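Your task
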Amino acid sequence: MTIAYDSATGRLLSTKWDKETGATTNIDVTSYTYKPSGDVTSIRTVRDGSSTDTQCFAYDARRRLKEAWTDTAGVTTLPAPNVPGIGGCTTQAPSKNTFCGPDPYWQSFDYDVVGNSMLRRAFRWMMGRSGAHGLECWGCRWTSV
């Protein structure tokens, strides 16, 4: 396993799990992006070099998690000489056009007056009888998290 940190901030930038055989192969490569304030904006995992799972995170003005979702549009980071790992998902908000991935989800959160998180809505991707994919709401009521 190889772990990379940003030397200036100490933030985790990536992890790599390798299969140690005659030819070293990456089994799992995960990279992280952040806002300059340190909030995680994306986690992107490539498994066996083929399956990519990108999780995206958006925050409100008080730096509380507002949205979490999987996305297929990719990740964008600032070029050097900026601090490594600053960036996020190319899609800045959940969209039915890019929502997907190996284990797709989409969750939105609100907060009550004292700051307790409340799950506003949650969706998961499911296979329909005809084989077509669709969104199913599995938690659209106010629920304490």
In short: Residues 127-145 have pLDDT under 50 and may be disordered. The chain has one domain: 2-111.
